[in-house]
Amino acid sequence: MDTTDPFAANIPMPTSARPLLGLTVLVVEDSRFACEAMRLLCLRSGARIRRADCLRSARRHFRVYRPSVVLIDLGLPDGDGADLIQELNEAVPRVDGILAISGDPHLEDTALAAGADGFMEKPILSIGAFQEKILAMLPPERRPKGPRRVDDTAVAPDRLAYQDDMAHIADVLDEGLSDHTLDYVAQFLSGLARSADDPVLENAAKALAEKRANGKTAASETAQIAGLIQSRLAERIAI
User: Fold this and answer.
1) Is the bond leading into 123 cis (omega within 30 degrees of zero)?
2) Can you say how many angstroms the Cα of residue 156 is from the centroid of all Cα atoms in its chain?
3) What DSSP letter does each residue of 150-170 carry, written as one string?
4) Are 165 and 201 in contact (CB under 8 A)?
5) Exposed end of the chain (fewer CB within 10 Å): N or C?
6) What's the pTM?
7) Name one Pfam family in it (predicted).
8) Domain boundary assignment for the chain
9) Helix or strand or coil: residue 51?
10) Please, are residues 236 and 166 in contact by the beta-carbon 8 Å criterion?
11) How far is the C-alpha of 36 from the C-alpha of 183, rounded, in Å?
12) In angstroms, rounded to a whole number, what is the distance separating the alpha carbons of residues 112 and 93?
């Protein structure tokens, strides 16, 4: 594996205004909306960003490059993000920082046990909170020197990215309603709807998750979610 970033022949030093300057951040996240937020956060902070939307794509990335920091969603379409965290924690050389992200705060202990350096609950929209969490994982020489003003501004991802996520889940539901599919849909939509301030969809996703957790059939909850998704896809046509 090539442990160098091809863009980093001369790594710029971080500054108080752009404290993540010189870093390459790999975001392993299947939500377009969440990734758009991460792109804006990295842009405002000075970091470069790469994206992998599943475990397979992330592992393919690591056969070629080693980023400075990796942000890993714990609920991915092809497996558990904690498995990738454990792999990266045991790899030599190890990346500087591994940050687990999830809309479920109860997964923090699982992530830390797998070897993550930190955990952030989604939605992640605050520039200052994002920067502080990343900087805390880095060695002192990768941090900006001197005092720094914390930016409490929140980023606002493009609403079209939310529509892309609706189309993704519609495709997932069209492929069949297996147990794995329903669990994935409930997890994905719970965090996504919270990030996008869509309480109706969030409550529907939570109702589906509760039925699944109790081992009950969830035909009505699944039908409700399918209808909500179609109504949101109709909004994209209007846009």
Assistant:
1) yes
2) 15
3) ----B----HHHHHHHHHHHH
4) no
5) C
6) 0.88
7) Response_reg
8) 24-142, 159-238
9) strand
10) yes
11) 24
12) 19
Q: What is the pLDDT of residue 149?
A: 77
pLDDT score recorded for residue 237: 52
Q: What is the pLDDT of residue 8?
A: 46
Domain 24-142 has CATH 3.10.180.10: no
Which residues in 207-238 are b (16+ Cβ under 10 Å) and which e? bbbebbeeeeebeebbebbbebbeebeeeeee
Q: How far apart are CA 172 and CA 75, in angstroms?
A: 15
Q: In this structure, are residues 101 and 83 in contact, taking their beta carbons and an 8 Å threshold?
A: no
Alpha-carbon gap, residue 56 to 97, rounded angstroms = 20
> Which pLDDT tens digit goes with each residue over 98-127?
999 998 899 999 999 999 999 999 999 999
Residue 227 near residue 203, CB atoms below 8 Å:
no
Structure tokens at 232: 């949101």
DSSP summary character for residue 135 = H
Sign of the C-alpha dihedral, residues 100, 164, 36, 155? Answer: negative
Q: Are the CB atoms for 38 and 101 separated by under 8 Å?
A: no
Going by their DSSP bridges, the two strands 97-102 and 69-73 should be labelled as parallel
Determine contact, residues 38/71, Cβ cutoff 8 Å.
Answer: yes
Neighbours of 58 (CB within 10 A): 24
Rounded Cα distance, 115 and 112, in Å: 5
